[in-house]
Each structure stands twice: as structure tokens, then as C-alpha cells.
Amino acid sequence: MRKIILASNNKGKMTEFNALLKGVCEVVSMSDGGVKEVPEIGRTFVENALIKARNASAQSGLPALADDSGIVVDALDGAPGIYSARYGGNHGNEEANTQKLLAEMRGVADGQRSARFWCAVVFVEHANDPTPIIIQRGWEGEVLREKVGNNGFGYDPIFYLPTQGCTSAELAPEVKNTISHRAKALTALLEELKVC
Q: How far apart are CA 3 and CA 153, in angstroms?
């Protein structure tokens, strides 16, 4: 099986990508590939994903897959957006991020709490690939007023899915991996390019 490097140290993302790509290709983590993180200085999800993919490929010598994703809240003019992972102050502090978003949404009325998880996935054959494959997909929902559910990671416990009648954190992983923003983006990427 062909090896690709996933440009992420997020354990939740690694688990999801491994489940989505199982039997298709071998996914190598950044730590296993000896890849050091690069600052995410882009202003969009696509820019950040491309920065991460090129960096991972350059350091590992492998084709790279990267995503940049987050929650986009309409009542907050798109925030936290690209800052979702560090919204609460420290990068990767999921509880602080969730609590800050709940506080920011406290005064927002029901019916005006629409949001979406957004994912930009980028695949590069090599660090200087002039034709990266770029896919973006969203997953519509609403921001709850409190956490519900124990599955998933990040904002999943406060992201309510009207079509499912539950939060993302209440979905079984195998269900989430067929309907999430990341699943939709990766499925579209695999359809467009036989990555492995």
C-alpha cells in the first residue's frame, strides 16, 4: 500500500482519517514521519491546509494530505473559523475553546444559532506540486447552549444536527465518518484522484 503523510498531530483527526482511508493507503502521522509543525499563517482554511501539506511533504519526502477545519458560526460573522483550535487561548485546549464559544453565543436567540463545520482538504504529490488537489465541504448544524454527548472531539458536543436529531458527539464514529464535513471532503478527494 502506498504511504502518505497526514499533516496533523490532532489525535482525533488521525483516528478519523485512518478510519476513512483504511484499506486504501497507509497513513503516516507527522510524529512517525519526523515532521515538525509549521505556523498556520494563512487567512483561509485552504491556505492553511496547503501550507501544512507542503511542509509535511517537504520534510518527509512523501505525498501529503492536510486538512484545515473548524466551526463557522453565522451569528459571530464566521468566528471562530480558522482560529477554532485556539479560540480559547491555547492551541488544542478543546474545553477552553468550547466554553468560549458557549459564552460568545449566550445572548443569541434560538433560531439564530446556525453554524457549520467546514473542512478544506489538500493533497500534494510533492512539496512543490503546482497542481494540488483542493476540496472543501461543510456540515450544517446549530450551536447548542450546553454540551451533549461523549463521542468525537473539539466542538462536537455543542454541534447539533437537526437532520440526525442529536449532536455530533452523540453519533457513533462509524456514522460520523460517513456524514461529517471531513468525510465528505475526503470522499470527494478520493473520487477525484486515486490517491493511493
A: 26
Residue 68 annotated in active site: yes
CB 62 within 8 A of CB 129: no
| Tens-level pLDDT at each residue, the chain (196 residues) | 789 999 987 777 788 788 778 877 888 889 988 999 999 999 999 999 999 999 999 999 999 999 999 999 999 999 999 999 999 998 889 999 999 999 999 999 999 999 999 999 999 999 999 999 999 999 999 999 999 999 988 999 999 999 999 999 999 988 998 999 988 998 898 887 665 5
Q: Which of 32, 67, 68, 74 is catalytic?
A: 68
CB 132 within 8 A of CB 153: no
- Measured CA to CA, the distance from residue 98 to residue 157 in angstroms comes to 9
Q: How many domains does the chain have?
A: 1
pTM here is 0.90
Q: Tell me the CATH number at 182.
A: 3.90.950.10
If one counts every other C-beta atom within 10 angstroms of the C-beta of residue 91, the result is 12
Full residue range of the structural domain in which residue 73 is found = 3-192
